[in-house]
């Protein structure tokens, strides 16, 4: 097989690339660094030449602030669907967010854009699987919810059920190699934790002892469990302690 990975330099995409190469799959690593822009479409059709499957782990940013992030995401997905159709790609695996379609996020542009991306893919006629996950352990220090100061770290008080990015990558690879797949795959981590505590644990493991302060979330529902796993989501490890142990090993290599 020849598989293209969109967002190949990102947290999930880079892991997918490594795993596919370990499986001796012919991988096309697609990113702006490789000369492909998903939002403008530049280079995308050429990049998918001879490709059997596409894993879309991208999070397309608007070029030079020329449009809103939500518009950039949906424009990128339309371009991906169009390029897959033109190149007769037989399989598309798309990474999304579990719970984005919940009405509590109707005023949250990013989630609204994720819904539209999923709709574009669902209506495309492609053999597609949408992999929807809860937040990742790695999100613990994401600027979307975390502000770093010289003497402290402020973290929005979200209640989350994080899953490891390595686990997400494993699922994306499995789905890409399964040409008979389709529909949705929902995955979540095994433990519930408040984001400030997760951030504190991750930072401490990395040797950052700055105190972590919880602050009000942008949306109150984020503190109330709106991001927790749905009942039909598959719970997948590792647990927090195991993940922190692996992080500790990585930092001491």
TrEMBL record:
The NAD(P)-binding domain extends over 7-175
Cited InterPro entries:
ComplexI_NDUFA9_subunit, NAD(P)-bd_dom, NAD(P)-bd_dom_sf
| A Pfam family of this chain | NAD_binding_10
The record's annotation in Gene3D superfamilies points to: NAD(P)-binding Rossmann-like Domain (3.40.50.720)
Superkingdom of the source species: Bacteria
Question: Which GO terms label this protein's molecular function in UniProt?
Answer: protein-containing complex binding
What name goes with this protein?
Predicted nucleoside-diphosphate sugar epimerase
């Amino acid at each position: 097989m020849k598989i293209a990975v969109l967002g190949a330099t990102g947290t999930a995409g880079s892991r997918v690339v490594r795993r596919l190469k370990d499986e001796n799959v012919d991988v096309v690593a697609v990113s702006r660094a490789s000369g492909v822009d998903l939002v403008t479409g530049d280079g995308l059709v050429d990049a998918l030449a001879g490709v059997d499957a596409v894993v879309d782990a991208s999070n397309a940013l608007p070029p030079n602030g020329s449009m809103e992030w939500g518009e950039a995401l949906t424009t990128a997905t339309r371009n991906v669907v169009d390029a897959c159709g033109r190149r007769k790609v037989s399989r598309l695996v798309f990474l999304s967010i579990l719970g984005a379609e919940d009405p509590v996020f109707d005023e949250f542009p990013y989630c609204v854009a994720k819904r539209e991306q999923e709709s574009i893919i669902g209506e495309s006629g492609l053999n597609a699987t949408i992999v929807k996950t809860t937040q990742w352990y790695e999100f613990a220090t994401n600027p979307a919810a975390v502000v770093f100061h010289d003497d402290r770290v402020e973290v929005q008080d979200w209640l989350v059920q994080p899953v490891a990015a390595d686990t997400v990558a494993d699922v994306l690879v499995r789905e890409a190699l399964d040409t008979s797949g389709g529909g949705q795959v929902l995955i979540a981590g095994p433990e519930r934790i408040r984001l400030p505590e997760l951030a504190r644990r991750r930072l401490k493991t990395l040797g950052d002892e700055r105190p972590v302060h919880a602050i009000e979330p942008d949306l109150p529902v984020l503190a109330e469990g709106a991001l927790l796993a749905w009942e039909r989501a598959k719970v997948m490890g590792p647990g927090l302690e195991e993940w922190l142990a692996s992080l500790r090993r990585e930092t001491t290599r």
